[in-house]
Amino acid sequence: MTNDTNTTNATTQSTNGTTRTVAAYAAQRPDAPLARTTVTRRAVGEHDIVIDIKYSGICHSDIHQVGEDWGTGIFPMVPGHEIAGVVGEVGPGVTRWKVGDRVGVGCFVDSCRECDNCKAGLQQYCTGEGGAVFTYNAMGKDGLPTYGGYAAELVVDEAYALSIPDNLPLDAAAPLLCAGITLYSPLAHWGAGPGKKVAIVGLGGLGHMGVKIAHAMGAEVTVLSQSLRKREDGLKLGADHYRATSDPATFTELAGSFDLIVNTVSADLDLSAYVGLLRTDGTLVQVGMPEKPLTMHPYPLATGRRSLAGSMIGGLPETQEMLDFCGEHGIGAEIEVIRAEQINEAYRRVLDGDVRFRFVIDASTI
Predict the structure, then answer these.
(1) Which one, out of 60, 274, 323, 354, has a CA that is 20 to 30 A from the CA of 338?
(2) pTM of the prediction?
(3) Fold designation for 20-178+314-365
């Protein structure tokens, strides 16, 4: 549904059919500092919109991609898949949006649109040739590399943009496009709500959104963190309990307690210990992406008919559902807004765990 508030009645249509050069921040090679540059966006097509990017969140996966931790990257690389902005221009065939609409773009900008998953609204699990086209560090259907949200503008198919509710500030809404949906999807899928006990492992950019969303869903929420350093923050965000995983008593006292555990951290954890915290038929969902494989013995799974699962972002319908839910409950990310020239410092601070809880780039400084 198109967001009509604070929009103009006029519709600016693209007519020149030419590519556009926009300012951006990019890494020229693996692990290189990001620096100001320009990139070429494709010409606005029949069903494309141009988004004037206002804010772009910094996700830990941006750092992994620049460092080629998950495979060979495409350089120069413009990261950013937590994008919030305003429609500045529309193609002649666009029907969903008009100039001035508040929109967001998340982790992918296209998919095959024909496989069973795409037809079911699960575009993130596209099984068509090449799979989903990610917002950056990927090859588009036009054979050109995609560039992400650390930029002034984005050209995207209208079907892959999402409406940001009017009551959510764009800066606090940007991280919802990755961190928000990454936690909303498993919480919704596995039925977090009244009468359910949910644990969120880690209180970082992902975890703090999990606490807010699970609390708003009505679940009893426990944060499981290495230490009690962020306990006050966790309780303010909506957690009912906060326990330190460095304390062995946590695993004995909470054994068999939870219906659902969502693990947001990328560290090498003892999964068997965490599975032991589940009730019969409980599920541990892994959303953090460690560099090395995680292993565990199957015995704790078998003894409680417990499940170990994974989840990755969400499709377009569920992401819009998440944004609407956050709008209804007034949920945005806890953020620190930075200027573009602070990106490299922000990367270092993310690696040091020195952020409460998400960095967001003010795109006007790009």
Answers:
(1) 323
(2) 0.94
(3) Quinone Oxidoreductase; Chain A, domain 1 (3.90.180)
